[in-house]
Amino acid sequence: TTGTCTGYTDRTGAFHAFGDVAAEQQVRADDRGHVFHSWSAQAQINPLPIAAGEGSTFWDYDGNAYLDFSSQLVNLNLGHQHPDLVRAIQEQAGRLATIQPSMANDVRGELARRIAEVAPGDLNSVFFTNGGADANENAVRMARRYTGKHKVLSMYRSYHGNTNTAIALTGDPRRWANQPYADGGVVHFFGPYPYRSEFHSDSPEQEAQRALEHLEHVIALEGPATIAGILIETVVGTNGVLVPPPGYLHGVRELCDKYGIVYIADEVMVGFGRIGEWFAVDAYGVVPDLITFAKGVNSGYVPLGGVIISDAIAHFFDDVSFQGGLTYSGHPLACAAGVATFEVFERDGILEHVRDLGARVVEPTLNGWLATHPSVGDVRGQGLFWALELVRDRETHEPLVPFNASGADAAPMNEVAAACKAAGVWPFTHFNRMHVAPPLVITEDELRRGLDAYDAALTVADRYAS
Ligand code: PLP
């Protein structure tokens, strides 16, 4: 679509050619004057005003096109302005815009049924939320009520959301600022990470085995009788696209069964096709007790998330009230977009498309860069979910920028990101990593163009690498 877009429509429907300086200035003035942004010091941010989006591309007010290699926040699985999703929302708004959660309607029920049909094992019931953090909050609440226990184990190097329990569960360094106020009852452990192993392992198999021994040790020390749940991202997302090594998730399942612990899979980022499966656990043949989802369920067109619940846990609540509820749970506009998402996935073969592009285009290209770019230390991923870990020294694995760098320390990564943007690709960068996470509807030509831009940007990183 790049190049076909010549302007944008404002909220009254009037068309404007790109380059309307006054319109852009108004957006910037309103934003900087009154929008309080997340995750940054307010004085340091300068958000890019976006005028239009279509498919895998969005445009700023000057008409610069960006191929979105980060799918916004890895949520825009079906791309911008997908006609089926837009139409579903418009039609739903025209017939019943909202109902409260204790009533039933057709799209909410149909979406729950369709999710249950593709969910693994006996996960047949869906509790809807507004997003991913509150899905994790409610999953933990279910696990605690179901087991009568209170602690929850989650990984260092994880992101589970930014509400109170979700940020306590999060093992990303960004949580530390919130830590004095965060909920208790959370214990962190080390997950597998072969490239920077905590366990001095020599192979992914050994990493899995040692990480499981460590987890069992943590369970023993904390006391199995106190542990309600283990919450893990099936493929760790923001903290590095850490693909679980062979046997690891099976081992987690076995430990949960052995000690009466609820296995909660956080699939907020990887669910709904990101790695070419409905749910990432499907790739590993593992059935958790609860799966949390959000983002890809409807590409974030209207906020939606939820918990998919096993029959055993759902039936526990047959005679026990589940004390969780949100005014907008299962919002009809969001659910209509969710049902449309299923229709598009099935009609257009989205899962097959993701698997094909991942295996045929992304995997060989990124692995090829190990030979051509001294700054590429590690390549990890599956489907359309990949990370390149950038280093100064491939022997020592010294990262391109220091851990959790900011200011001048972060300059090399900022230069890499700037090179991508100058080439018309919006990258996902975090710490010393570049992620490849485009919309799942991306075409092969678009994907190759974005990868070419990453390839060129890596020469910027190479200057720092020995
Ligand atoms: N869990 C994971 C794995 C995520 O990646 C995210 C968001 O990035 C969340 C939970 C939180 O989701 P939300 O921002 O919708 O609350």
UniProtKB/TrEMBL annotation:
CDD domains attached to this UniProt entry: OAT_like
Classification via Pfam families: Aminotran_3 (PF00202)
GO molecular function: pyridoxal phosphate binding; transaminase activity
One Gene Ontology CC term in the entry: cytosol
Classification via PROSITE patterns: AA_TRANSFER_CLASS_3 (PS00600)
Keywords, comma-separated and alphabetical: Aminotransferase, Pyridoxal phosphate, Transferase
Lineage: superkingdom: Bacteria
Listed cofactors: pyridoxal 5'-phosphate
NCBIfam families: PRK06062.1
Stated family: Belongs to the class-III pyridoxal-phosphate-dependent aminotransferase family.
Name recorded for this polypeptide: Aspartate aminotransferase family protein
